[in-house]
Amino acid sequence: MKPYLPYDGVKKEIEQDDEPVSDPLVAERPLRILVNSEPLSVTMQTPGHETELVRGLLYNEDIYRGPHDQIELRFIEDRKGIVDEVRVGIPVSHIGKGYANSRQLLSVASCGICGRTDFHRREGESLSGIDLSPAVIHQLYAQMNAHQSLFEATGGSHGASCFDFEGTHLTTREDIGRHNAVDKAIGALLRTRKLQHAKILLVSGRVSYEIVSKCFMAGLPVLASVSAPSTLAVDFAKELGIALYAFCRGRRVTRYA
């Protein structure tokens, strides 16, 4: 795949008398994902890390959770050299239960659950979250912020970072979509075979049911956000055993589950 820029530079006039300025904006492009030649999803994403996005999505949606060498990924580029389609080949015997509930419509960047054909709770054993002090959470966010170059350049991207219980930074990924950033982060850990070490997920946007679901499917018992959780996110975090922290800003931290 060719190198890409995660943002576009555009010129705009603030007011009629002002000078035009060059303002970088986060890139947003449609990515079509097919599994065994059947459409799975169209998601609006920031170009780059497509392998990690697809791996994380398939894993978090319980469509495929096996080794990387048992699936085939084919990337299709547009005229600008940007990947706009990923064709995934998975042996039928290896397809998970989540495929029956897969997205069949447009999945937009701000809504991870849009396009589902059904709404169901995740199956599996509950996790066991732990207590984190506000000081520790803010230290982790300081590490996360140091890895958010796209947000620093554009102010328009979401971020997701994973850590172990010792506070070691494992990965950070950014994207125009909240759930895409999480999928890319999980996909990165799958690629480097470090997912088993990840215990804490930090996100930059609000926490919805979808984010809690991905956190649970990846086996991460702690979830923290700088923004607000939804009622359903809190309910599911309590049921699934996930320690949920939100409004992690300044000196403030609120634990919801």
Structural overview:
There is one protein chain. The protein has about 260 residues and is α/β, with parallel strands linked by helices. The protein has two domains: about 30-105, Roll (Ubiquitin-like (UB roll)); about 135-255, Cytidine Deaminase, domain 2. The protein has six helices and 13 strands. Strands 9-8-10-11-12-13 form a six-stranded mixed beta sheet, with helices on both faces. A five-stranded mixed beta sheet has the order 5-6-3-4-7, covered by helices on one side. Strand 10, helix 5 (about 210-215) and strand 11 (about 220-225) form a beta-alpha-beta unit. Helix 4 runs parallel beside helix 5 (about 210-215) and helix 5 runs parallel beside helix 6. It is globular and about 50 Å long.
Briefly characterize the structure.
The chain is an alpha/beta fold and 257 residues long. The protein has helices at residues 50-60, 134-146, 149-154, 178-192, 209-217, 231-240, and strands at residues 7-12, 21-26, 29-35, 38-45, 72-77, 83-89, 106-107, 158-163, 169-175, 200-203, 222-225, 243-249, 252-255.
